[in-house]
Structures are given as C-alpha cells and as structure tokens.
Known about the structure:
Layout: E1 2-7, H1 15-29, E2 33-38, H2 50-54, H3 67-75, E3 78-85, H4 92-101, E4 108-111, E5 116-119, E6 126-133, H5 137-143, H6 147-156, E7 165-171, H7 179-194
Parallel strand pairs: 1-2, 1-3, 3-6, 6-7
Antiparallel strand pairs: 4-5
Amino acid sequence: MRIQVVHCHPLTDSFDHALFRAIVETLEASGHRVVATDLYRENFHPAMTEVERRSYMDNDYDLRGVADYAAILKQMDGVILCFPHWWFSMPAMLKGWVDRVWGPGVAFTYDGKDRHLKPALQNIKLFGVVTSYGSPWWVVHFFAGNAGHKVLMRGMKPLCAKDVRSFYMAHYDMDHSTPQSRQAFLQKVRRTVGRL
C-alpha cells in the first residue's frame, strides 16, 4: 500500500516523534510505500488564506498553496495521523493541514443544491490514528466527551472509502507516564502497524 504518515509535534525528542519514526519504519519493513509528512519540519503554514476561504464552498477551491499536499493525499491508499492531543484536540498545525488540504475537490465535493458533502477520498482504504493525551482515559471520555476522537472518526473518516479500515490508538495520562508505559504502547503500535 501507499501510506502517508502525517506527524505533528514541534520536538524531535518527543514521545510522539518516536511513535512517528516507529510507524514509518514498521510500514517500510512490511513493504509499504511510505510518504512521511512531518508538518513542523516541513514548515507547513496552517492558516487558511482569504483566497482559500472565499473559494471554499463553490467547488472551485483555490488550493495552489497546498497543491503538493493535496496531490499526495489523492495518490495514497492510506493515511495514518500521529500527533498529541492538546486541550483535547489536535495541534493547530495539524488542524490547519486538515482545513486547507481536506478541502473541496480533494476530500469532498460540495453539493450547492442540497448543501451536502459527497465524500471524495475513495482512494483511502486505511485511516489510522496514533495519539497521546496528557489526561487519563476517564477525563478524556467522561469529562471532555472525547471530542478529538469524534472529529477524526466521525468527521474525517467518512470522507474516505466506504469500506475503509480504521484504527485509533491512544496513550492516555502522558502527564504520569513511565518509561515502561511508553515502551509498552510503542510496542503495541509496532504490532498493530506491522499487521497492516
């Protein structure tokens, strides 16, 4: 498979960056063709421009500023996102990548008559998420309503192929993690990705 791994963390010595490297290495060792997209190292500009926003809902979206990223997404068989949850949501740079790249003509087609979105990423047969939270599981789920999971699995995943395979892996309570808990999660990620 051709799989894009999109990573978003400013620190290369972070646990999330170690997860990113592990995902890429495991996929490559399994024979997949990997496009490793490290948004911070690529200096991705997350802010949508005025031109992009004005053209957004009429299927004539001006994606010149992200054309290379859109072309990659349209060529992939799968996408795996690797990032931390900050304030129960994805980092601003990753949100900007979603806002700007997953636009009309790329991730969906906008129907102006009935004002619905028609999914357009039929090429994406695999949608995966590897993430971390500073808070424990119960805070994320019961207190915060697991908002990040909903955006990803109810908002983005439905824009992919109808039979898309998906997985969502999260290391909770990073604020109290240990070398043992991080290593166990890293190995779980390697096993899961290695079976793709």
